Amino acid sequence: MRNTIKTRSGRVLELPTSEENEAINRGIAADPDTYEVPDEDFKKMKRRGRPRLETPKVLLSVRYDADIVETFKATGEGWQTRMNDALRDWLKDHQPA
Fold it and tell me: Distance between CA 78 and CA 85 in Å, rounded?
């Protein structure tokens, strides 16, 4: 029987046997196009992707009326940022209770 694992999404993944794993590693080692990065070089590599924000956003679960959400969604991509900006503008003139 094959060794399997189940992901959070419910997919079942079949893991290679130790013999298959060894064959894969031999194939990688024999490939002239592969390059194994030494640990010292790996540590020097810069992190890719979006830089960390000075003031990161907070993940929050909140409920809005459907018509409000649909109105913002109808404005296209970036609607959540526009919703955040609208709340920020409201705060300029109002004091939360």
Answer: 11
- Residue 77 DSSP SS3: coil
Please give the structure tokens belonging to residue 80: 């959540």
Specify the 3-state DSSP secondary structure of 6.
Answer: strand
Q: Residue 44, Cα to own-chain centre: how many angstroms?
A: 23
Domain that holds residue 44: 4-93
Q: What are phi and psi of 13, to 5 degrees?
A: -105, 135
Q: pTM score, two decimals?
A: 0.47
pLDDT tens-place string over residues 16-34: 999 999 999 999 999 999 8
The answer to whether 34 touches 41, Cβ cutoff 8 Å, is no
* Total tally of structural domains belonging to the chain: 1
